[in-house]
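seq as requested:
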Amino acid sequence: RANQQRAFQPGPAQRFMKIGVLGAGQLGRMLALSGIPLGHEFIFYTDRKDSCAAVAGEVVHGEFDDKVKLAAFAGWVDVVTLEFENIPLSTLEYLAQHVTVYPNPVAVAAAQDRLDEKRLFDELGIPVASYHVIDSLQDLKALAPQQDGPYIIKTRRLGYDGKGQAVFSDASQASDIWFNLGEVPLIAEEKVPFSRELSIIAVRNPQGEIRYYPLCENRHQDGILAHTRVCRDSALQQQAESFAKRVLEKFDYVGVLTIELFDCDGKLVANEMAPRVHNSGHWSIEGASTSQFENHVRAVLDLPLGETAVLHDFHMYNLITKMPDSTALLSIPNLHLHDYNKTPAFRRKLGHLTVYPATGDTISRVEALLTTT
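struct tokens:
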């Protein structure tokens, strides 16, 4: 590779940078599609064979413990980032010995274990639901008599899109939950009453410049994000931004960070965080002055961040399991379709759409089409 020995020197004078992305799914794909117009190239490293990001850059296939391939990958790029947080910490630390990694491994590690995450929020004064550490079946059985209501039981590591979770409302469920979740360390979270689920997306560059996107209201189905609506001028925006800022500054964080939140009668309770671009920010591609994806690229290259002003009150819908008829969708004004070119599978995210409701029936037309898919 021509640039194998080139050291990363961030700043606006740098052109034609090669950005390495760990993972090669739709988030990596959208990162690349936002960075290519800025003049940069992308190389993806993945342990999976199906790589929908391949249309936007070269893909290197290898295991995350293959130090020979990882060292070569690090030598081909100027900076490394990631599209999902469940990269082994040892991989991130090894790469960091060879190339700049953003966000830094310590920040990513904090989001990989739900117990560590909760303790981080506690340390930073960010409210969370009451929780209990479950290290054994006996711990889970002991929890049942103390409960005043149901608990959400989650694996401490690797859960996403509703996976690795169960509702615990009766002592008789303890054994089934323990075995079904893999007999691994768990965390039991009090099921808090909330009116809606929200997320705050923020971005920070190495100079400490921070930008925030408006709060998003999210609706899930079976644990998977189905619909996001932008909340302009929310009374909770400042509260959410203060939470994000504490985490960003704690880790000297670089890149996009997302915190998922519960609205509990006007007070925010943190659920979890994601050290990456986030599904609830897909609307920003068409709906913000600068998308979360472009701002992440700007951040990891130490470039000035773009404005995050909302251009329209966009809605975002995930397209899951089966793709709807694109002709029918594209007949709706102000609708933008993103097809990830993935093989359909049950509960798999195959694409998303964003739409600006220019007329009163726009949203009902979209939802009617999605319901019949």
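Residues 1-8 have pLDDT under 50 and may be disordered.
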